[in-house]
Design brief:
Layout: E1 14-18, E2 21-25, E3 33-34, E4 46-51, E5 77-82, E6 85-90, E7 94-99, E8 104-109, H1 115-134, E9 137-140, E10 142-146, E11 149-154, H2 161-169, E12 175-177, E13 180-186, E14 189-193, H3 203-208, E15 216-218, E16 226-228, E17 242-251, E18 265-268, H4 271-279, H5 290-306, E19 309-313, H6 321-333
Length: about 325
């Protein structure tokens, strides 16, 4: 199937910094920090984004790529490989076209999709996949910067990665990413490239941290989560790549375990076990691409050889956040 997509983003674009790149777009992104010095649209570190003003979906591909099984029977995201690259359909929300090099993205919103939802889909779902196509090593992780270095949190949706990161944020520790962590090896270290300011929090977490909702942005029209605005607090967001010193895989107690251990517990993992934990936290657009799998395996092997991966058992109560934060800081200090 052929898709004809125009990428005329050289005229009248807005430019922002995200994941170490310059994002050039025809719409504003209040979630991102503006790029202070515009760069040529042909620069390799640019990614071009255009949102269509028309609610006309792309033609439906004849063949879809296999994807991870979803908890719901209704599909949320379907992907297809097409002549120009890849096609992503967020059902009843939006369509996206991504070129084969991951440098040009076109989004077409659904009739009832809000601008905030479209930006969320681009930033937190499409962009990580595009970065992988560009050759960047990425991890589905939330990360904070401590005095010892960067610690990252991985785990399934609902594990509490963003809430734990917010606990660090409001204790004075910068957040580097809330969903997509870009990593690279440099002189024997693994460095984390900051993504963009902010975390996504549910209403009860906003109340716990005392966040004024007027100082937050909606994430999507289909969810109650909001992003506390931190761009006006430069101390809360670092723009310089920082060394990663620890990765924690978050585990919540099961229903049978409720009412048992109420203190956070940190479990040491072997590099092999850490590798297995990290496998579920990779961004894979085409799960049939053997070359991509090989590259991911090499990346994870390098990662576990440089950064310890540990399992963090986190109590369900918000009241345990200070103790969990302190347990992490103690573990980092004695690492």
């Amino acid at each position: 199937m052929t898709m004809t997509v125009q990428h005329d983003l050289d005229i009248g674009v807005l430019r922002y910094r995200v994941c170490g790149l310059t994002l050039a777009s025809n719409v504003s992104f209040p979630e991102l920090s503006p790029a202070l010095e515009p760069e040529p649209s042909t620069a390799e570190n640019n990614i071009l984004v255009r949102f269509s003003a028309h609610h006309v979906p792309f033609p439906t591909p004849s063949h879809w790529l296999p994807s991870k099984s979803l908890a719901s029977e209704d599909p949320w995201l379907s992907c297809a490989k097409v002549e120009q690259g890849y096609f992503l359909r967020f059902h009843n929300l939006a369509d996206f076209s991504v070129d084969a090099e991951g440098r040009k993205i076109v989004g077409v919103p659904g009739a009832d999709t809000s601008p905030a939802t479209l930006r969320h889909l681009l930033l937190d779902n499409v962009l990580p996949l595009a970065l992988t196509l560009q050759g960047h090593d990425t991890l589905h992780a939330t990360a904070v910067l401590t005095t010892q270095g960067v610690c990252a949190f991985i785990g399934p949706s609902g594990a509490g990665k963003s809430t734990l990161a917010a606990s660090f944020l409001f204790a004075g520790y910068p957040v580097l990413s809330d969903d997509c962590l870009v990593l690279r090896k440099d002189r024997g270290q693994i460095l984390a490239t900051p993504a963009y300011p902010g975390v996504r929090l549910c209403d009860d977490a906003l109340d716990v941290f005392g966040v004024d909702r007027s100082l937050s942005l909606p994430v999507a029209h289909y969810a109650s989560k909001r992003r506390p605005v931190v761009q006006n607090h430069p101390d809360h967001f670092s723009t310089t790549p920082q060394p990663v010193v620890r990765i924690y895989s978050l585990v919540r107690p099961t229903e049978e375990e409720q009412g048992g251990e109420t203190e956070p517990q940190i479990e040491h993992l072997s590099p092999r076990s850490g590798f297995v934990e990290l496998l579920e936290s990779t961004f894979m657009l085409d799960r049939t691409d053997r070359t991509m799998w090989l590259r991911q395996f090499h990346f994870l092997d390098r990662l576990v050889s440089h950064v310890p991966v540990k399992r963090l058992h986190v109590p369900n109560e918000f009241a345990s956040l200070p103790a969990t934060r302190q347990a992490i800081l103690d573990d980092l200090a004695h690492g």
